[in-house]
Amino acid sequence: MVTIPDRQPFIQTIKPLWYEGRVAELSMLRLDVIHPEISGNKWYKLKQNILYCLANNISTIITFGGAYSNHLAATAACAKYFGLTSVGIVKGKYAEHKRTHTLQQCEQHGMQLVFVSNEDYSRRNDPDWIASLSKQYKRAFIIPEGGANEQGRAGSGEITRYITDKYSHIAVSVGTGTTYTGIANLLERDKVLYGYAPMKGGEYLNEAIRGKVTNKISHHIYASDAHGGFGKWSDELVYFMNDFYLHNNIPLDIIYMAKMMYTVKQQLLQGVFPYSAKVLCIHTGGLQGNRTVANKLVY
Ligand SMILES: *Cc1c(COP(=O)(O)O)cnc(C)c1O
N or C terminus of the chain: which is more exposed, having fewer CB within 10 Å? Predict the structure, then answer.
């Protein structure tokens, strides 16, 4: 059995003033607490991949990401924990000479970084390139960007174990849609799943995941793309994060969770959820990405 140490996820009721009377309950599933580095959804996406490697005598994991990728950082920490070697293919040659905190963390965990041009990186799902990469490393397993494979979806499905019966609406943030799809396929049919994608016009992801959600549940991905685009933020968003923390003692990350909760707030005010809804927001972690705004946050 693969386990990581630290804490079990738990559900916390959230009580910001803006939801009073709009829905019956608003809570958060705290996946961010499970581990300081292999946190949130990243652990669930990696878990089945690690099991696969251990069962098949694979010693090296190769994966892909940008200079701010939470997935790269989590993979490096996870590989080290389970005694595997890791290689990170990083988008952008420039990143080599300007190591971000995320990349430094990867290297501290022994990940070998290979910097490639944006053009080469765009071939990351090209079977020829993947085959040639596998040949360069002995007994290697390649995990796609964001852990977006069968094992990633299966592991994400395990998150549904923590979703108790009473909740009617589940909210989760979306990048590749791996976590969303994994949850969707194992969710009880009487529940509604909403995704929140911070990419510009993020609703396009509904098309991308269509064939992958096989469970007949009601679900939809909304764009949570205000505040200037992916990775960008506004003072208003930072204010929201600080306010949310002061009311609930829950830190949100600036890339995914803050934008999801900001959008959920707008939806509550607009009446998107029925008054009887019991809403469970899944905290997918990502807090290591707050380094860039650390001096503006009260946490
Ligand atoms: C990586 C990440 C996501 C995106 O998960 P996908 O499975 O790629 O959709 C969402 N939220 C946080 C906090 C993340 O770090």
Answer: N
